[in-house]
């Protein structure tokens, strides 16, 4: 069922944030959530796959795995055992721009969990035996992705659209790049990226007077300062063009389109792109879904996503349909996109989109894990603002501004198009 988009009448300003910076440049932020049953400790670092140099492809993700193999003070498996004994859980994720490690823990055990987390992430042992074993695990993960047609299609779209940019490379790397790695190369990567201003610790949950003091005397203080924390890599561009791929095990044919959008730091433009993609592809009343699935009934599914990225965001449209419908689907998509650029949306349609985007951001503040992730990402990349501040920028977008500034950039001839049969 479509997400309910009734107007939210209850005032909600989001959790109160407290931010500070350690002497070596480490960013810190705490979000007060008094009623939360758990505290989330979330350590983020500008060490995603876009940080990799030539020959390091897949290093960021492989390092994420190796971190959990233990440190000088924690044997393999000891961290998970200790966190579980404290009543908590842990996880990690690597993206294009950053990597993060988080722990969900009862508030009264947060100081103990913080010490364990920092010991694990900042002082990984990276021993040779564990390195070889974990490399096999990552190689198996790469093989599993290669065996999934859906993943192959998306990676092909990114590779064709983003070209040589890091966003066009698989985050997992390739078997050849993994085979060429050794512990010493990974140690150099860790030392280069896990430094002062490249790191941010976010704490979300019930307020604690002890945690800030614990942070000030923690292993974070031992990180070397990072003198140039700004990522100077070139912004991603999308190469327009048309490509086709045939995959024997693909369950349904699909048409994909990829466009560039503003980088995350350009918050106003990002909100306009979010609003435009919502009007086009979110919910049964969005233009693409309504026309292709509800009226013509020629597709199985329509999705349009905005991926917020620091070197340029990406907009992806994916339509799944029977192969015999591909031509008419592509034609109808072109008509819908041109109509959006030629005529402003109605006021009612605009308000529906604004409400959906607004609700989405508000709903993203329901758990400590979600809040800590938003806090850390903002602080790490220099966006020191209230978590709901983007809603003010959303309100500045009118139907005319969308028509003249956003929809003309979302045309078929400006997209990287991939037909997957």
- The CA-CA distance between the termini, in Å, is 29 Å
| Global geometry | globular
Number of helices: 15
| Largest sheet descriptor | 6 strands, mixed
Strand order of the largest sheet: 1-2-6-3-5-4
| Secondary structure tally: strands | 11
Low-pLDDT segments: 1-11
The domain count comes to 2
Helix content range: 40-55%
Enter the CATH topology name of the largest domain: Cytochrome Bc1 Complex, Chain A, domain 1
CATH architecture of the largest domain: 2-Layer Sandwich
Percentage of β-strand residues: 15-25%
Supply the CATH class of the largest domain. Alpha Beta
Mean pLDDT score: 93
Please explain how this structure is put together.
The chain has 421 residues and is of the alpha+beta class. The protein has two domains: 16-222, Metalloenzyme, LuxS/M16 peptidase-like (Cytochrome Bc1 Complex, Chain A, domain 1), CATH 3.30.830.10; 241-420, Metalloenzyme, LuxS/M16 peptidase-like (Cytochrome Bc1 Complex, Chain A, domain 1). Helices cover 40% and strands 18% of the residues. The chain contains 15 helices and eleven strands. The protein has a six-stranded mixed sheet with strand order 1-2-6-3-5-4, with helices on both faces. Strands 7-11-8-10-9 form a five-stranded mixed sheet, sandwiched between helices. A hairpin with a 5-residue loop joins strand 1 and strand 2 (27-32). Helix 9 (267-281) crosses helix 12 (347-363) and helix 10 (287-295) runs antiparallel to helix 11. The longest helix is centred in the first third of the chain and has 19 residues, at 128-146. The two termini are 29 Å apart. The relative contact order is 0.17. The model is unreliable at 1-11 (pLDDT under 50).
């Amino acid at each position: 069922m479509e997400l309910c988009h009734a107007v939210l009448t209850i005032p909600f300003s989001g959790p109160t944030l407290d931010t500070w910076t350690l002497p070596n440049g480490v960013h810190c932020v705490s979000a007060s959530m008094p009623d939360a049953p758990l505290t989330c400790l979330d350590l983020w670092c500008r060490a995603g796959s876009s940080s990799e140099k030539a020959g390091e492809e897949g290093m960021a993700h492989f390092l994420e795995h190796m971190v959990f193999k233990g440190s000088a003070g924690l044997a393999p498996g000891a961290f998970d055992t200790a966190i579980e004994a404290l009543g908590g859980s842990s996880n990690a994720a690597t993206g294009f721009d950053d990597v993060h490690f988080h722990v969900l823990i009862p508030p009264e055990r947060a100081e103990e969990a913080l010490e364990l987390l920092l010991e694990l992430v900042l002082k990984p042992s990276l021993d040779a035996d564990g390195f070889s074993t974990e490399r096999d695990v990552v190689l198996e993960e790469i093989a599993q992705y290669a065996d999934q047609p859906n993943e192959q299609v998306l990676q092909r779209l990114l590779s064709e659209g983003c070209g040589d940019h890091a966003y066009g490379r698989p985050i997992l790397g390739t078997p050849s790049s993994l085979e060429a790695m050794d512990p010493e190369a990974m140690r150099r990567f860790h030392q280069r990226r896990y430094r002062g201003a490249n790191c941010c610790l976010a704490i979300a949950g019930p307020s604690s007077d002890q945690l800030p003091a614990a942070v000030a005397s923690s292993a974070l203080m031992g990180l070397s300062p990072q003198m140039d924390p700004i990522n100077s890599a070139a912004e991603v561009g999308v190469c327009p063009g048309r490509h086709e791929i045939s995959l024997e095990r693909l369950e349904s044919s699909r048409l994909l389109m990829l466009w560039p959008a503003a980088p995350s730091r350009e918050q106003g433009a990002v909100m306009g792109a979010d609003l435009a993609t919502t009007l086009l592809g979110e919910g049964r009343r969005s233009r693409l879904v309504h026309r292709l699935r509800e009226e013509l009934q020629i597709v199985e599914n329509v999705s349009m996503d905005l991926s917020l990225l620091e070197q340029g965001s990406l907009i992806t449209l994916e339509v799944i349909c029977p192969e015999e419908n591909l031509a008419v689907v592509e034609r109808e998509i072109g008509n819908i996109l041109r109509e959006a650029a030629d005529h402003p949306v109605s006021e009612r349609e605009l308000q529906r989109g604004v409400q959906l985007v607004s609700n989405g951001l508000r709903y993203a503040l329901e758990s400590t894990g979600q809040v800590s992730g938003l806090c850390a990402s903002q602080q790490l990349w220099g966006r020191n603002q209230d978590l709901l501040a983007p809603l003010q920028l959303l309100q500045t977008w009118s139907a005319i501004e969308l028509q003249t500034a956003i929809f003309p950039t979302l045309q078929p001839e400006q997209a990287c198009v991939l037909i997957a049969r």
